[in-house]
Amino acid sequence: MIIQKRRIRNVARYLPALQHGTPIIVGVPLEGVSSRKLTQIGFSENPNVNTAILPSPIFGPISVFNANGKEQPQRDQPMETVTRWVYRTWEDWHGNSHSGYVACDYQRYPRRFVPPPGEELRISITTENEWLITTEKIVFEPTNFSAVAHAINLLLEIFQECHVFTENLGRIIQAPLQRLNWRLLPPGSRTFEQLTQEVAPIVRRQPDEHQPVIMQRLETINAHAPDFVAIGKSGFEGYVVFGFQERQIFLFESVFIDNATYVFGDDWKALSQMTKGDIINNNLAQARIYHRPGWHQEIRQLLA
User: Fold this and answer.
1) In the chain, which ranges are E strands?
2) Which regions in the chain score pLDDT beneath 70?
3) Tell me, what's the pLDDT at 281?
């Protein structure tokens, strides 16, 4: 069954013949996908079977929500005061120029964070040697209709079509996945200038006034000489992992303003093969150090 729409809302309308409880897999044939599209998603031009990646949030609002989640203003609640650190330049009364980090308070409605679905795409192969790009298996039933709609809409946004496989799913070989969401830098400590070159592409995508604040946070962590650094790819872009293996401390740092630093105690191999939802949304972190006044002191105390 092939769907060619910009977006669907009512999955029952588009899949009327499916009985509740039917397992389905959503995907597209790999043969019709260009090399450029593969690299945009985060795969290589010649991907290996059973590799998976969280697709890059560059295709539209569905892929952005899939990777990053979203915040919903709670307009029925009283407004709250929020502090944001920015880097600014100003002149004093004598016309002298000064620069520095300034805490800016502003009013906003409270936000409710909607976690990212984190739907990954994987390279699958059938027993007839047909290569596919697929999601994981989903059971078609009312409690999963929103997840089915999201998977279909994600593929429609990326590929402009979507195939719903419902029969002979056993021919699609399900093997252990190798996730490709991180790029591990060469081991050993590196100067902040070296790290700057590695993270510059993702930092440059942030607003100009936020970039010095982001770099200062990364410099604060890097000054404690981590054993390794890994940079997120595709849907994980914007996150950097600093590993302190002897202490069993792994810092999952976000370059986004008003986010947090996640502290983990698991080994990096296990962490790197988790989904984004596992890492962020399932309370696996030992602590969250929020990006607010006092962040630098908390990081220094943790790594002292």
Assistant:
1) 2-3, 22-29, 51-53, 70-73, 80-91, 97-108, 111-114, 121-125, 131-134, 138-140, 162-165, 178-179, 182-184, 228-232, 239-244, 249-254, 260-264, 287-290
2) 189, 258, 280-281
3) 67
Domain segments of the chain as ranges: 2-68+115-179, 75-113, 182-303
pLDDT at 274: 81
Q: Give the pLDDT confidence score for residue 20 in this predicted structure.
A: 92
Q: The pTM is what? A: 0.81
How many CA atoms lie less than 13 Å away from 169 in the CB half-sphere?
17
- Tokens for 303? 């790594």
Backbone angles phi, psi at 157, to 5 degrees: -70, -35
Give all strands (DSSP E) within 130-284, no chain letters.
131-134, 138-140, 162-165, 178-179, 182-184, 228-232, 239-244, 249-254, 260-264
Helix or strand holding residue 216 (H, E)? helix 211-222
Scored b (16 or more CB within 10 A) or e, 168-196 reads: eeeebeeeebebbbbeebeeeebeeeebe
